[in-house]
Input
Amino acid sequence: MTTSNSNRPTAAQSCHSMDPDLLASCVHCGFCLEVCPTYKLTGDENNSPRGRLRLWREEADGRIPQDPWTDHYTSECVGCLACESACPANVPYGQIFEQVKHQHVAQKRSRPPISLRFAAGLARHQSLFNLAMLPARLLRKAGILPHRFLFKGEPAAFQSTQAYVSHLMQVHRPTGPRVALLTGCLMESLFREINFATVRVLIENNIQVIVPPDQGCCGAFQEHTGMDGVDQLQEQNRIAFGKLDVDAIVSNSSGCGLALGKTMKGAVPVRDVLGYLGEQKLVTRTRMDQAARVYVDLPCHLVHGQKAAGIPANVLDATGYQWELAPQARDCCGSGGVYNIQKPENAQQILARKSAFLNEAVGTPVILATSNHVCMMQWNSARSTGLVKRPYEVRHVIQLLDPLGS
Ligand code: SF4
Ligand code: SF4
Output
């Protein structure tokens, strides 16, 4: 999926400005239907990639008027991009979907909830976002998890990842390749223990880490909601990352990595940190507890967005755990960026199908591991809402490699 600023319509433009070649590229074969979570949920053709594309094209060609049903079926899409992987005609569904969402918000056909609009505004100012999330960080640190999406963890309340990197680099002085870390807005403000673990793993493997101080939100938040502001965030990150002398920019969130990859357009390679580590000679952890079992789930934005084959097996082996791919590992968990906030009932139904195996999973403890904090939040909700009755832990794979990890 590629999107450039020039592809994003302004508020003044309508559906009729959509590139007709993009919408016409669907050959109606239907290969995408069986991978689409909303089609599998409803059996409704309009709730499939092919159906949505047809509705958008009919409207763009003026054969149907703007219609609440088109708005409804657009809002139902999770944005998982599984249809892109399945499509033999290479329809750039993600690019089209982004344009349509942006148009619908611009035309006031859809309106993100106020909580998301507020959060998107905060995400433009990382220091404000960090401050606003301080109470949530303190609650997590105290083991109090007042929301279904909050998983266990102990984020530093005040020390930033940038300060932590400076300290560890001075202590350990790695001499290997040099990478820049995308710290992310939500990751840094709420789940920064994952950033800290990422830094420890990189440095333990002799990789030099820098954290560009002027980086900002990757813009995925705005893209998911169709809101304005992506262009400014992209420009900020192009300036922050564009002139660095590094081998790669690494991201520990597949959604953020995908968004930053589109921003950088190859000027500096943007890599998923686990894929990058898979190319290094890795320190391997030793586990005394052989009863534990790790079930690995693959984020949509990693396998369908970034088109990665998965999480490298040598990285998973280096965790020292017995591991296997979770059933339906390449299918969407229902998170979809902010889909589980905008469409909670659908998201829970999608998750219910996917998480059912955990009730019968073998292992003590059972660990569900993935590589996107937003997916971790969704997986945690299977526990907190009672979809899964037995205990299990939700972890980022990088935490399983962490020298300070359990
Ligand atoms: S992005 Fe996912 S939910 Fe949306 S149409 Fe494609 S497969 Fe279906
Ligand atoms: S697989 Fe591609 S070409 Fe076929 S119906 Fe789906 S979007 Fe259209």
